[in-house]
Amino acid sequence: MGSDARVAKSAQPFLRVRSLTKRYVRGGVLQKRIHVDAVRGIDLEIPACKTLALVGSSGSGKSTVARCVTRLERPDAGEIWVGGTDIAGLANRALLTFRAAIQMICQDAVTSMNPRFSAAETVEEPLLIQRRGAAKQCRQSALEIMSEVGVSADWANRSVMEFSGGQRQRLAIARALVLQPKLLVLDEALSGLDLSTEAEIINLLLDVQAAHSLTYLFISHDLPLMARLADTIAVMCNGTIVEQGPKSQLLSNPSHPETKSLLLPAKIFQKKYAEMLGVSG
Amino acid sequence: MAGDLSEELLRVVNLTITYSPPASAPVRALRDASLKINESEVIGILGESGCGKSTLASAILRLLPSYAHNDTGSIVFRGSDLLTMTEADLRKVRGRAISLISQDPALCLNPVMKVGDQIAEVLRAHLAIGKGERRRRVEELLQAVGFEQPRQIYSAYPHQLSGGQRQRVVIAQAIACDPALVIADEPTSKLDAALQAEILSLLSEIRKRRGTAFLVITHDPTIFPGFADRIAVMYAGGIVEAGTTEDIFRKPLHPYTQALVRLSERYLTNSGETKMRFPMIDGEPSDSTRVNPGCRFEPRCVDRMHVCIDSDPQEVTHNPSHRVSCFKYGK
Questions:
Q1: ipTM of this model?
Q2: A55: domain CATH number?
Q3: Which of A1, A29, A112, A177 has the fewest other C-beta atoms within 10 Å?
Q4: CATH class label, B1-88+188-193+217-269+277-290
Q5: Residue B205 in contact with partner chain A when CB distance is under 8 A
Q6: Three-state SS for A245?
Q7: pLDDT tens column, A94-141
Q8: Nearest CB to B280: which of A200, A227, A231?
Q9: What pTM was computed for the model?
Q10: Number of folded domains in chain A?
């Protein structure tokens, strides 16, 4: 653990984010450099084994939060407490332990994988990077986790490019699980999937959450879907959280216009569907 | 619904398309697909990835790659077969009478050209009007798709616009020459929830005002109630069921359609229930290189029968507007 890591005094929620701020610099050689606050003052908490959904429109800053929580970005201010340690300021080497505990699954499984790798190579790579045993042992662990997520060992040597969208997303889940993480950050992991594939992946995520006692941070713009999956929902708009609470409260009484607009397509579908059935029924 | 629904605009008859890429097994992308679109009508094509819905859209405009072969069938647009038309005649149809809104507006706009000029390009290709008139019409179009300051938008480059604004520009481009039919391939799949609702209401508005027919391709059935008049459900290159939107949602006949409707009802269920498993369709999508007969949905079907394994189901007319290809309802 790094020297700058701070240790919490008592047991806390598995993930606790306090006053998180991340600035990006826009402009450059020919343009004036300006600082843009991508996110500011973000406060979040997720108890262990629970699910929090961070929802918002494109550009609201939700992916920046995901990148800070996974420490792919270093926040400019704020704290990120993971199981009692503030990882916001940790240096790369000290972060290594936490990298295994926090894994991320991206929207587009295909661009997050090396097209030259086979399925087994893709899944075992994190184990090799983290030096979790001999090559043979790593391969065996990869095959076990692949079979758990429903990818047959017969497919282990096939290129990732030969897999369908749903199967690739299963591989991405296997790759994330192989290091036995505690927290999965799912950045639009369900976007762009067919409804049947989406249902398959959701059921798989629910199963592995129960089996591995995982904590989930979902990033999505699909609030009605998140309402089916999350315990708590936080709505982001222009880099800040504008509404946050237990999902039942947030859905029954949305107060911020952004929350209302994210619920709009579901409301329209419900209304039109009822009208359609009502007219003829 | 707006417009005259009785007059036939486009008819696809028994269209079969095979992709034969070099060094790969041939893929039957479309199998005997038949579809009719009337003037001013909104038709939805519903199906999962790889079912052939985008092939159908590209086939209508003859934009398929060179290794695609059209084995049988015809596509008749206002009395002329698009498949036998000369390339010169076809150029008068593309963008003028039939236009396309593609899935990703970021990819189909030229990044180094002002968006107004890109819309004007369509007008220049098809209409003999001067530069000033073209500019005026582009500004009108930008206004028609919801931009309050069309002059500023005219001079913007695609990267300066948001995803929703870019989709509006692509829609303006598609309706520039007042086409009779607009094919929209997943027009909302890359957009946020709020923008999806906005774009669908814009398309409905255009149809109402201009009487444009739309062929909307999607994997998301929830966009159709209140928007599409009829829906054709595709599976593994074939149209397995077609009917009015009401038929499809109230009385889905094909087991695949029934499963899709069940999946779309996730928007209706009470949000009080957390972490309930979702209903799903077991199994993998059909292998499109398969050539032997048999219902393509049989391996995943909950109602499969022995006959489904090695015979192709024929289309059965359930009522004049509702047809289905499934052995449950006849041969």
A1: 0.82
A2: 3.40.50.300
A3: A29
A4: alpha beta
A5: no
A6: strand
A7: 888 889 999 999 887 878 899 999 999 999 999 999 989 899 999 999
A8: A200
A9: 0.87
A10: 1
